[in-house]
Amino acid sequence: MNIKITGSGSYIPTRIVTNLEFAQHEFLGEGGKPLPYSNEEVAEKFKQITGIEERRYVDEDLLTSDIAYFAAQRAIDDAKIDPETIDYIIFAHNFGNVKSGAIQTDILPSLASRVKHSLKIKNPKCVAYDILFGCPGWIEGVIQAQAYIKAGMAKRCLVIGAETLSRVVDPHDRDSMIYSDGAGASIIEATDEEGGILAHETASFTHDEAYFLFFGNSYNVTHDPDVRYIKMYGRKIYEFALTNVPLAMKDCLDKSGVAIEDVKKVLIHQANEKMDEAIIHRFFKLHKKTPPEGVMPMSIHKLGNSSVATVPTLYDLLIKGQLEDQEIQKGDIVMFASVGAGMNVNAFVYKV
Predict the structure, then answer these.
(1) Are the CB atoms for 238 and 50 separated by under 8 Å?
(2) Which residues contact 117 (CB under 8 A, 6 or more apart)?
(3) Which residues pair with 267 in a beta bridge?
(4) Spatial separation of the C-alpha atoms in residues 59 and 8, rounded to whole Å
(5) Rounded-to-integer distance, Cα 153 and Cα 177, Å
């Protein structure tokens, strides 16, 4: 018995927000001080560092659970399965449903329960629950699905990663330009086919690192202090990721028994192009190798950082041939990896 991704789906919002649209923002630093350079300079430096040219935001009438349902239905259709046969629905997100213009999150009932309801699944033994694991949430959901299947508790799971980060960002914080909205979903199931998940690795770093990402006040000191937004210590996260992600990836690859030369693609959380490139180079350097050209497909340039949705969306685009100059074939070795709030790091090695 092997455990494979038998279907995938994603939802990419239709509203495109370019870097130019931030030109009218009043960007401030901590303490509410104006930045010492123009918005045009902010946007240009931002693009050079992150690689992001534009991002996607959901329409005002859509919620995180809505776009998750869209992605889930597409994954179910792709796998050609009866949704009543799904044993677990595992939904990774971080902020629940936040209505447009609202300041309160809604996670009652769980978003996984809402997706199950939208899918019209009647089977009460289809267990639906949410996980909060930062940006690595979808990968952790896949790892949990694999554990259920290995333990004989499930045969088929639906794992979703969805987020609407556009509704929890501080418009006065230039870091808000990183974030976007989106959803990705996958069917994970036992199969007699060759391949599947070969090894996995997960770690949580919380001693000094727990609050590298956090909810904090707006940089505009006149804003309501009880309204919070996603905030981060970017330099600390960068340094943390460059140290810990390559090591976790190496441990995972070593456990799989796969040679570094046989890794066809690395699908890494789309957080920051320069950071991801540095992680990949360090990962290959640990094996005394240089990354081959095209080993790291990217979607961040046009889609931004949609947190838990970046990796499943990237996989869906890749497996369906929708990424320019990128493809994977049956039998290829792919490594999935992510890093995010917690601070959490995880990875798995997968044979298509």
Answers:
(1) no
(2) none
(3) 336
(4) 23
(5) 42
Label the pairing between strands 105-106 and 97-98.
antiparallel
Q: Which tokens sit at 198?
A: 């070969």
- CA 30 from chain centre, in angstroms, equals 27
Model confidence at 273, pLDDT cuts 50, 70, 90, reads very high
User: Which range (44-53, 142-151, 340-349) has the least confidence?
Assistant: 44-53
Measured over the CA atoms of residue 261, residue 263, residue 265 and residue 269, the dihedral's sign is: negative
Neighbours of 230 (CB within 10 A): 22
Half-sphere exposure of 75 (CA within 13 A, CB side): 35
Q: Would the pLDDT of 263 be above 90?
A: yes
Question: Over the stretch 198-240, which tens digit does the pLDDT of each residue have?
Answer: 999 999 999 999 999 999 999 998 888 888 999 999 999 999 9
Indicate the pairing of strand 127-131 with strand 213-216.
Answer: unpaired
> Taking the complete model, does pTM exceed 0.90, yes or no?
yes
Of 135, 165, 169, the closest CA to residue 272 belongs to 135
Contact 348, 252 (CB under 8 A): yes
